[in-house]
Amino acid sequence: MIKLLLAEDQGMMRGALALLLGLEEDMEIVAQVGDGDEILPKALETEPDVALLDIELPGRSGLDAAADLRARMPGCRVLILTTFGRPGYLRRAMEAGASGFLVKDGPVEDLAAAIRRVLAGERVIDPALAAAALGAGPNPLTRRERDVLAAAVDGATVADIAAKVHLSPATVRNYLSAAIGKTHTRNRMEAVRAARQNGWL
């Protein structure tokens, strides 16, 4: 039996996926979580063969959890399953050690096949997304620029951002200015929007 961990914050979607995958003769759902902070502890407890992770979760993102699993449980394959087919997300998922990346609008048969393929050591990537990622190029933002933009998401002031990321206000302004330039936008909120649309945050 292929043991699966399912991380999805929408209860109805999580239940539907669990039900459908549970109908596969060779698959068993050993854990279901709705919060990114629960993924690693639950995986260590249940030892799944494959972890199906949404990206946008409360707590740690699916991308952060994928990196956690690679470090602590290298034998567990990670398959990212998301609504948001953004090229930057695909690139970050691969960097985090994910074995596959699929968008949620595909048939469940394709998902079951993808689970078997990643367990066999293959990489499985949504073809349209792979083509878009190749055309999009790498993320131009540095880690610190991403941190500062992420802290600016809710319209925070420079002082708020500085306190959150433990930098001086002047340094925060410099990072914001650099991020605005690299995203070819006019202000920090446009930069945040552009970075999110590209999957860079």
From TrEMBL:
Cross-referenced Gene3D superfamilies: 3.40.50.2300
Q: Which residues carry this modification: 4-aspartylphosphate?
A: D54
Any one Gene Ontology molecular-function term assigned to this protein's record: DNA binding
Would you say which domain of life the source belongs to?
A: Bacteria
Per UniProt, the keywords (alphabetical) are: DNA-binding, Phosphoprotein
Q: Which SMART domains match?
A: HTH_LUXR, REC
Describe the location of the Response regulatory domain by residue ranges.
3-119
Give residue ranges for domain HTH luxR-type: 134-199
Which InterPro entries did the record assign? CheY-like_superfamily, Sig_transdc_resp-reg_C-effctor, Sig_transdc_resp-reg_receiver, Tscrpt_reg_LuxR_C, WalR-like
Kindly give the PANTHER family that the UniProt entry links to this protein: TRANSCRIPTIONAL REGULATORY PROTEIN DESR (PTHR43214:SF42), TWO-COMPONENT RESPONSE REGULATOR (PTHR43214)
Write down what this protein is called.
DNA-binding response regulator
